[in-house]
Amino acid sequence: MSRTCAARCYSSETPGTTEKDVPYQNTLKQPDSTAAGPTKPLPRSADVVVVGGGSLGCQTVYHLAKMGLTNVVLLERDRLTAGLLWQLRPSDVEVELLAHTRNVVSKDLEEETGMHTGWIENGGLFIASNKQRLDEYKRLMSLGKVYGIESRVLSPGETKDLYPLMNVEDLYGTLYVPQDGTMDPAGTCSTLARAASVVENCPVTGIQVREDAQGVRRVRAVETDHGTIQTPCVVNCAGVWATKLGDMAGVKVPLVAMHHAYVVTERIEGIQNMPNVRDHDASVYLRLQGDALSVGGYEQNPVFWDKVSDKFAFSLFDLDWDVFSQNIEGAINRVPALEQTGIKSTVCGPESFTADHKPLMGEAPEVRGFFLGCGFNSAGCCSSSVTFTAFLCEGSERQGRRCLNDLGETEK
Q1: Is residue 270 within 8 Å of 165, Cβ to Cβ?
Q2: Is 122 strand, coil or helix?
Q3: Residue 116, φ and ψ in degrees, nearest 5
Q4: What residues have CB less than 8 Å from 93, skipping those under 6 apart?
Q5: According to the UniProt record, where is the region Disordered (predicted)?
Q6: 8 Å CB contact between 103 and 160
Q7: Collapsing DSSP states into helix, strand and coil, what is residue 165?
């Protein structure tokens, strides 16, 4: 199937909007709210200021609160936002961190707050369309056993029994992880953010840095149009805006912004309760969304966002069907029913990526007290607990507390 044909077949029958020349009915644009001003007064000081109210920022303030810090402020330039969670990765450290994220979202938060985070445990399927990929998944299964993650390899026939709408003719097998699932971004972020003072509609305009008697540059304060917060510690969870925030402090943040898209289908009969699907060879994922699917993946020929705009916030890019059609073709091959399914909405927004596809974490070498928690390559929901949990990976809780005590030191 050609890319042009794939885009045409995989579209709603209703005409496109007058605002965008693309074949879908709705975008998820929301009116600009930055003019309303901050949602609460800014404090004069804080032990830590976290910048960015996505999954990374919200998980950071939650873990800081769990480790004893109470005077933490989260600044979000617009509104809180934040997903798929796959537990198996080829790195043992990543497996441990993902397991921690799952426990927080699926169990801990609800027990601590009484609020439902929107966690749905519908399982996950990794697709192997060649022997090498299946061998890789068998190794993942062995690694998962060490950490108590239940998984098993399914034959094409067993996969068809589990997921009747799937095309299994080109499969060698699949890896099924029953306890993978989906988290609701809004519910998760709102629950996590209860651990801090959250100020929305408050963009950061500057980072004050001082030089101490030893010539070491240290964070002094965070500036906004609505006031200044004295603080010895800033955590940069600003996503695609992380580079700009770093520039304010004289810190290099090596990431790039790209257009990253997914579409939400109309209702699909028989898709209810099916596992989420990840097909690495086709670079596509199929995420259950009620009685529909979210379809996305990594673009092989991505569009870069060279000039990151401070006014973009919750806006969306025009979806480039020439770029996205490769994901559509893979999705249609895996679930043929999609070819006759309309599109309910599309999302094409900015996402940050790093050169080695690994996140940027920890204290910046240029400025003491300026920490990075960004560049998570569209996997922020999965790995969001990593930012401060990472301090505990190679030692005891005591070591982690020493890090946090150093973070929260007051100016002398």
Answers
A1: yes
A2: coil
A3: -80, 130
A4: 393
A5: 9-43
A6: no
A7: coil
Torsion of CA 201, 258, 126, 134, to 10 degrees: -150
Beta bridge partners of 279: 284
Tokens 């989906």, located at residue? 182
Residue 383: the pLDDT is: 47
**Which residue bears the tokens 């080695």?**
356
Tokens representing 134 are 């299946």
Number of other residues whose CB lies within 10 A of the CB of residue 83: 19
Neighbours of 227 (CB within 10 A): 14
Is the distance from CB of 122 to CB of 287 less than 8 angstroms? no
Split the chain (412 residues) into runs of 10 and give each run's mean pLDDT: 42 36 38 59 92 81 82 77 51 61 68 70 91 92 85 95 96 91 70 74 93 93 94 90 92 85 89 91 88 83 66 60 79 93 81 81 92 75 47 36 44 38
Amino acid at 15: P
What pLDDT, on a 0 to 100 scale, did the predictor assign at position 90? Answer: 53
Tokens of 156: 């094409």
Phi, psi of 98 (to 5 degrees): -65, -40
User: In sequence order, what are the residues at sequence separation of 6 or more whose Cβ sits closer than 8 angstroms to the Cβ of residue 84?
Assistant: 124, 180, 182, 183, 276, 285, 287, 381, 382
Closest CA to 128 of 338, 278, 236: 278
The pLDDT of residue 1 is 41
SS3 126: strand
- Give the C-alpha distances (Å, rounded to integers) separating 398 from 61, 109, 393, 410: 19, 23, 12, 20
What angle do helix axes 131-146 and 92-103 make, rounded to 10 degrees? Answer: 60
Half-sphere exposure of 28 (CA within 13 A, CB side): 14
Q: How far is CA 62 from each of CA 33, 150, 200, 394, rounded to the nearest angstrom?
A: 25, 27, 17, 21
Contacts of 21-24 with C-beta under 8 Å, sequence gap 24+, read: 21/318, 22/318, 22/319, 22/321, 22/346, 23/321, 23/343, 24/263, 24/319, 24/343, 24/344, 24/345, 24/346
Tokens of 356: 């080695």
**What is the distance between the alpha carbons of residues 338 and 9, in angstroms, rounded to a whole number?**
9
